[in-house]
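Regression report. Comparing outputs from two consecutive submissions.

Submission 1:
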Amino acid sequence: MGLPLLSTTLCLILMLSQSLPSSSLLQETNFIDQNPTAYEILGDYDLPKGLLPQGVVGYSLDTTTGKFSAIWNGTCSFSLEGSYKLSYKSTINGYISKGRLSRLEGVSVKLFFIWVDIIDVKRNGDDLEFSVGIAGADFSVDNFEVCPQCGCGLNCDGETRKVSKIRSNLFVSSS
């Protein structure tokens, strides 16, 4: 007679435990809700959110090394003012520090007929310096207040937003 009572008690405990929310699940959910977005991470490092196109579905950040990754559900490309073509792989990687993204992988710009990788973005006051290695271009930080959208960039609602250049030549050596 003791065995049926024990098995009935165990069944009741199991049924009740499955119908009640787990406290560890609640803690995990609250923790996830408190995580900043990839765009907020950029802001924490004094970089504008518009460096990343809309649609980031995940990211990773190692605060010890600064290793940073952003993930989309696919590749992302768009044009700005019809002359600057940008392409983001489904995952971009690099290192983030105050005012800088370095050793970038997965972001390219089309120059004339070839695609070159943007490997470094550095904030210098109100300007952002983009480097493709031995050459670079500067743009006002104001150009990156809004996140571009994959496919249409900053011209998705029919309203064209101008990109203002600081240097007269795109990706001209700064040395």
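Submission 2:
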Amino acid sequence: MKRTPFYEIHLELGAKIAPFAGYEMPIQYDGIIVEHKRVRESVGVFDVSHMGEFRVSGKDALGFLQKLTVNDVSKLTPGRAQYSAMCYEDGGIVDDLLIYNLGDSYMVVVNAANIEKDFEWMKKHLDGDVNFENISDEVALLAVQGPKSLLTLQKLTGVDLSQIKYYHFVKGKLAGVDMIISRTGYTGELGFELYFEADPEICKKVWTAVMEAGKEFGIGPAGLGARDTLRTEMGYMLYGNDIDQTTNPLEAGLDWIVKLDKGDFIGRESLLRIKNEGLKRKLVGFTVVDERIPPRHGYEIFKDGEKVGYVTSGTFSPILEKGIGMGYVDIKFSNPGERISVNARGKELTAVIVNLPFVPNRAR
């Protein structure tokens, strides 16, 4: 098992550590609900250094990324980040990812569990003058998220953080360390993601400075448990749960990142055909009625006694104080207001399909 450069800090804080994507990661510190509410109400800090980063450069870097991803990379000006995905030829999803335009190169940020798979997939399609390297082990990544995140971090940098728009970034010093300061995150709250050198001493310096700066706001660490409940409340997808090689971006509700008119890319023909033939199923959000039992990944979804889908993500929402979930259902049962039932290990949970997100998105 690998460890991030913050591992010793997590141990000192008494984190519950568990394996995740090949890493020993902090699942929780003070409890998932406490950490969840900390991020929604104030500010929390996540170590997400297990995520993968690839550097792409060379005169054909843009064309390479255009061929591999579904979004239009040509619209990505320096200082901007873009949410996108890679697909197989049949339209199934290789991974969802972020692309940063660093000016002289691009940085591709991929899911931790998919680093090797993604790297091999991209390497297989290398073409032209492209330098492609896996820099994951060189990069530390902290996500500082919550309504007080800007006030916390502004104490540590001369960069005017209020001027960084959503899905934009700057290169600058924070806590005396050179880094990428990005207005992105996975929580639906105002937040920043900080990319810097994965040296344990530098990491300790940044962590300590951020915690000290946020002390007046009740800052604290947050683990992967709260990261999951926060992203589920937002209807954000997790690879391996809500999307994978058996699902396509159109049925997953990611049609807004699929630019079919940008030119050819891997999976385009299949996605065009799927769009023209019409979707057969759709990823929806739903809330559980009356019961406090949370739905879980893999539970079957029924309508009038007939199986019509399955749950991909589910949890107890600390904000709504009820069970919430996402899942694929037959297209004819996918409209908001539709009542369904979920088989929770033999217990039938009545649920109703709702629009996503479950709680307001304040990230912008």
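Expected: both submissions complete independently.
Actual: both completed, but the second showed a warning that disappeared on reload.
Relevant detail on submission 2: The longest strand covers residues 306-317.
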